[in-house]
Specification:
Elements (H helix, E strand, L loop, with lengths): L2 H11 L9 E5 L8 E5 L4 E5 L4 E2 L10 H4 L7 E6 L5 H9 L11 E6 L7 H13 L6 E3 L3 E3 L2 H13 L5 E4 L8 E9 L3 E12 L8 E7 L5 E4 L5 H5 L7 E6 L12 E6 L2
Parallel strand pairs: 1-10, 6-7
Antiparallel strand pairs: 2-8, 2-9, 3-4, 3-5, 5-6, 9-10, 11-12, 11-14, 12-13, 14-15
Length: 271
């Protein structure tokens, strides 16, 4: 690819520099989604490429190998560092390690946005595709987007993803400009809801859990506290996460008192 083309493409995509607030999805609650696009929600580590470096969703630097990032473009990308379905613990271990190793050979950068590009969602991804067609962009893969005709099509796709071991679907308004922060233009569709909370205490186990952790006391960002015992395996019960650790849990709606119903531990977050 010519230097001139690279120069022009760079400035057609990148806007003024500045801190970027990444786009965050709302939960799908039967909003109108006809004419939107949908894709599988990947269970990886979200990664923002600013044109020079990779960062987590919390804007912590990712120690990726130089050979992994050397072919990435000189403009911003947003996506997931991902290996395969049901492999979150492994990908988290790879990505959050301070010293990168050969396991990065199994990692792909699954891109779902070009945040600084102009135009609607189709135009933003098209600019990345043009660049990708003319250069070696391994390990970048553009996540496949499907047309969403109606709610039934969405339900069928969700069933397909779940049957293959996936965790959910993302639905996006392709006609909207990029909008940072929590937005109704991007919706998360799952068979359950998930959220994050901070570990603030412990309850000792009883019976078969004598001498181990019984449950975690956790606090959500809005200040709601509750004990979380379901979903904890023996490894977690024997070596509980430290106070202040952020964990992810799943749940099914809320009680009348505003607490998550049927909450169950999913994983520790390190990103």
């Amino acid at each position: 690819m010519s230097i001139v083309f690279r120069f022009l493409l760079f400035f057609s995509i990148v806007m003024a520099c500045g801190a970027l607030e990444l786009q965050k999805a709302q939960m799908y609650e039967n909003q109108p989604i006809e004419g939107w696009v949908m894709s599988e929600k990947l269970d990886g580590i979200r990664a923002y490429w600013d044109g020079k470096n990779l960062y987590t969703r919390q804007m912590r630097p990712i120690a990726a190998p130089e050979w992994f990032t050397k072919n990435l473009p000189p403009f911003a990308l947003d996506g997931e560092l991902w290996t395969k379905r049901g492999d979150f613990e492994a990908i988290q271990s790879i990505v959050m390690a301070q010293s990168p190793d050969e396991r990065w050979q199994n990692v792909h950068y699954m891109v779902f946005e070009v945040p600084h590009a102009k135009g609607d969602f189709y135009q933003r991804l098209a600019q990345l595709q043009v660049y990708k067609n003319q250069t070696n962009l391994w390990p970048v893969r553009i996540i496949e987007q499907r047309q969403c005709e109606n709610k039934k099509a969405l339900e069928r796709f969700l069933e397909e993803v779940i049957a293959q071991g996936g965790e959910g679907v993302m639905v996006k308004n392709p006609h909207a400009p990029y909008e940072g922060g929590r937005t109704q233009q991007l919706l998360k569709v799952k068979t359950f809801e998930d959220a994050e909370a901070k570990v603030v205490g412990y309850k000792q186990g009883k019976g078969k859990y004598e001498g181990m952790l019984g449950s975690l006391e956790v606090e959500t960002p809005d200040g709601t506290r509750f004990f979380l015992g379901s979903g904890l395996d023996t490894k977690i019960r024997q070596n509980p996460p430290q106070l202040g650790t952020i964990i992810t849990f799943k749940f099914y709606g809320y009680t009348k008192r505003g607490k998550p119903k049927f909450a169950s531990f999913l994983r520790v977050r390190e990103d």
